[in-house]
Amino acid sequence: MPEVNSPERLGGWTRFVTARPRLALLAALVITALAVFAGSGVADRMGSGGWEAPDAESTYTTKALEREFPASQPNLLLLVDSGSASVDDPAVAAEAARLTERLAGEKDITGVGSYWQSKAPALRAEDGREALIAARIEGDDKAMGEVLDRIAPAYRGAHGPVEVSVGGPVAVRHEMQTIIQEDLLRAEMIALPVTLVLLVMVFGSAIAALLPLGVGIVAILGTNAVLRGITEFTDVSVFAQNLTTALGLGLAIDYALFIVRRFREELAAGADTRAAVGATLRTAGRTVLFSALTVAVSLAAMLVFPQYFLRSFAYAGIAVVLLAAAAALILLPAALMLLGPRVNSLDLRRLLRRGAGRTGGRVELSATAAAGSGSGWGRFAALVMRRAPVFAAVTTVGLVLLGLPFLGVKFGTADDRQLPATAESRVVQQHIRDGFPGSPGGGLAVLAEGAATPAQYAEYRSRIAGLPGVLRVDGPVTTGRFAYFSVLPDGESVGEKSQQLVQDLRAEPAPFDTSVTGTAAVLVDSKHAIADRLPWAVGIIVVVTLLLVFLLTGSVLIPLQAVVLNALSLTAMFGAVVWVFQDGHLSGLLSFTSTGDIETTLPVLMFCVAFGLSMDYGVFLLSRIKEEYDRTGDHERSVTFGLRHTGGLITAAAVILAVVMVAIGTSRVANTKMLGLGIALAVLMDAMVVRSLLVPSVMKLMGKATWWAPAPLRAFQRRFGLSEGKSAPLPAEETSKDAPERDKITSGA
User: Fold this and answer.
1) Cα separation, 453 vs 458, whole angstroms
2) What is the 3-state secondary structure (H, E, C) of 628-695?
3) Alpha carbons 213 and 203: distance in angstroms, whole number
4) Which of 135, 284, 479, 654 has minimal CB crowding within 10 Å?
5) If 0-12 CB within 10 Å is exposed, 13-18 middle and 19+ buried, where does residue 706 land?
6) Cα-Cα-Cα-Cα dihedral sign, residues 303, 307, 310, 316
7) Count of CB atoms within 10 A of residue 548's CB?
8) What is the Rg, in whole angstroms, of the alpha carbon atoms belonging to the chain?
């Protein structure tokens, strides 16, 4: 039976891809056009929340209060500014009463109340110049946004003696959603041309540079269509669109770089177009498929968490990874079949070579292209391995030190301060935070269910009023078998004292069933949900990574090394997140407001995404090392070979992905900024430090033991393992020290 990886045999997959390339591209064009149609308007169907656990006590309590006491859960606030007059001035009071009555008559608005009706001190600013009208908009995020768009223009602005601004949770979420959409469009406008320029620098050929962008666009449009379908069944966070763009471009470029690079190598070795495509799919194609699986598993781990914010990134991430891989493995080979050697057309570096020729100079390669397969990386790998203990120790200590700030992390909840300082809804919330007594919006609500007497309510209120950290207790407000108490904490609304108060309130005995909600309660429940599921998520990532890397390499030690080194590559990201975004360093330069904490779900999201991307680069490097080791059995030469042939490729891919993530990081929303800039840092540290320094030094220290595995496991890997496969034998000069001429050809110079 012929060997599956034999270069003389094109498998079914290869024949499928190469038999009718024009038909494949036409089908892709039609499918992409349908995806554009299917994915249109997806952002309008997404939510901007999702940080709370749906099965948590606080979520249940919030929904019960919304149902039984709509006025207790206002999500729309009108800030009424009376200028130099007092809010109790008769003219101001009359205009405010008119606005309150008008708002109560609006469709889909319930629970309207105001300071002028209740005279509640919490609704009046301490300086007496501002007061609030509160209401609740019914419906889901999409419906609430539509209501807000309809009514806000009629209330915003001057009304006789008062000036009205629109705020509240609905306005914050809606404004955040709008800003994210605008920022995402701007990020794409930044990233696409810069990425194209970098790809031209890498490939030299404008034709070759356009191929990765095409793969990325197909992946992004396809993912939008998938997300549009998912919104029919469950909530999806608008933040997931940022990941779609970043991974769609980043991974498509990674995969296309790897495939196009290998295709050019095969052409340079003398293969015709069909044979080159076949060899590329058997080698680089398998690595791309393997890499996509590892990234998808890392992202899929977020499905174990109940918060739809995290689950949304899993939906988007899995879809975009698989679509990017599919486009790279089907559409890209079809394009290469049609292009053949013309993939090197429109060499924009030719002008540089001509200019150098006129001056008597000689341009071998552009710097980036030389890095792509350059002898410089081979010499660098040799240097690192000669001083392996020093490089391993210094790099490890440096990464650990960079991660130390994360030991001081404080977790909190996302609020209006994610928005730009000029956003109207944030301005309203800031006025409330600074000028109103008792931090409105930061209180806790205790829901009581069951029959009770006024005396029992009074006795319970007295007990909770005596708990440590309680500033004031209001209520009960009753209806039928339900009642609720408003508890105002003393201090920060999500501080440690408020979180402890939540625990104390839940532990306080009562003659009726009680449950607690509020900002601090949501944070407590979110932290508990993440802590409860985090071991499962990490376990899934680690176990599947160990298995997949073992199937790739056949080694027991390399998978352990991959997990440990990947974790080390994330230390700088986590340290920087705390130092910059929690502690506020560089906040002026980066234009954000530090809240003194990190939103609870973001480190989980950043870990899953960054770990997956690190594995992506790790697979590229390990696959070439494994391929050469299988061919020669020379451990050190294999490491040098792998770094020489992927070092520049990984670096170029990391720089391009970092450009995309930095473009995402230009967002005016602080959490999106942190996500983009943090992952950009993690990607660069992984490619330029871990893959360049730690991997070769650690593999040198481990020696041939690197490839050890017990006999039963070796047999298992030979039967079920995935590998780069076999291609045509490399020319003799490829095993020489530098192979400069082949490097020049395959780089496209």
Assistant:
1) 9
2) HHHHHCCHHHHHHHHHHHHHHHHHHHHHHHHHHHHHHHCCCCHHHHHHHHHHHHHHHHHHHHHHHHHH
3) 13
4) 479
5) buried
6) positive
7) 21
8) 30
Residue 346: what pLDDT?
67
**How many angstroms separate the CA atoms of 440 and 461, rounded?**
20
Count the neighbouring beta carbons within 10 Å of the beta carbon of residue 321.
29
> How far, in Å, CA of 544 to CA of 558, rounded?
14
Q: What is the pLDDT of residues 82-129, one digit of tens each?
A: 988 899 999 999 999 999 999 999 988 988 989 998 888 888 998 999
pTM of the model: 0.84
| Cα distance between residue 460 and residue 476, in whole Å | 10
Burial class (CB in 10 A: 0-12, 13-18, 19+), 389: exposed
Residue with tokens 């109207």: 424
H/E element, 513: strand 513-518
Cα dist from 533 to 313, 407, 650, whole Å:
16, 21, 33
Bridge partners of 130, per DSSP, are 81
Amino acid occupying residue 97: A
Most distant pair of Cα atoms in the chain: their distance: 100
Distance CA(110)–CA(441), nearest Å, equals 18
- Mean pLDDT (the chain) is 84
In angstroms, the Cα distances linking 94 to 83, 87, 116, 121, 157 are: 15, 10, 9, 19, 17
In the predicted model, residues of the chain with pLDDT beneath 70 are 1-14, 16-17, 346-375, 438-442, 721-749
Helix, strand, coil % in the chain, rounded to nearest 5:
70, 10, 20
pLDDT the model gives residue 723: 53
Question: Please, what is the Cα angle at 67 between 63 and 73, to 5 degrees?
Answer: 70
Q: For 152-171, what is each residue's pLDDT tens digit?
A: 999 999 998 999 999 988 89
Q: How far apart are CA 258 and CA 2, in angstroms?
A: 27
* Token pair in block for residue 234: 């469950």
Let me know if 390 is exposed, middle or buried by CB neighbors in 10 A (0-12, 13-18, 19+): exposed
pLDDT at site 558: 92
297: which residues sit within 8 A by CB, 6+ positions away? 540, 541, 544, 545, 548, 612
The predicted pLDDT at position 350 comes to 60
Task: Give me the phi and psi of 725, to 5 degrees please.
Answer: 80, -175
pLDDT at 616: 84
Q: Are 614 and 566 contacting, i.e. CB atoms less than 8 angstroms apart?
A: yes
